[in-house]
Amino acid sequence: MESRASMAPAPRALPYYVAFSQLLGLTVVATTGAWLGLYRGGIAWESALQFNVHPLCMVIGLVFLQGDALLVYRVFRNEAKRTTKVLHGLLHVFAFIIALVGLVAVFDYHRKNGYADLYSLHSWCGILVFVLYFVQWLVGFSFFLFPGASFSLRSRYRPQHIFFGATIFLLSLGTALLGLKEALLFKLGTKYSTFEPEGVLANVLGLLLASFGVAVLYILTRGDWKRPPQAEEQALSMDFKTLTEGDSPSSQ
Question: What is the per-residue pLDDT for 179?
Fold first, then answer.
């Protein structure tokens, strides 16, 4: 009975917003694939199409999977906290690995073709996002999954972890939009202003990327949609407060 009572029902609108965000995310991935397939020749590792691995991997990893990792604590509201943490961390690992493949693809493509690296704003933002993403995961693992971190350290770092997670997600979206615009200008040049079909499709992709980001951030910022604390979490919090502030049940 106690475990049932501690299970808070999901807000009525939350599942619909989550489903809408997933529909947007999958549409972003599908549209990216369609753009690369219809106008860029598809993808392959050992050919001139190697470059196309980069945008596809970055969209899957640092946009779609990263967004889903951020939503884990809204979707799995009544599961054990550690299970939710592990899922959150694993999704970030998968996102990081896929993004790493995309990063290796573009550097390898540039090396094979004698192109310069890291000269554009898109590439600078991309490296910044990738480094921040790795550091964020590493620090998050150390604080929240590694057993050595104390409850007090976790409590103090949690707001920073949440803030930087949302910030890196926003930076990822902005970097993707910069890369999309750069790719269009390189290939289409002045034809971009003549409403070329590729340009129109890529513009739609850009709007979908922005919409997915807005949907994810809206779900995250709704205070009444936050994951409710479970009974064991509340007990740990009360024990910590009693030890550090000398509070007792009678003083509440």
Answer: 98
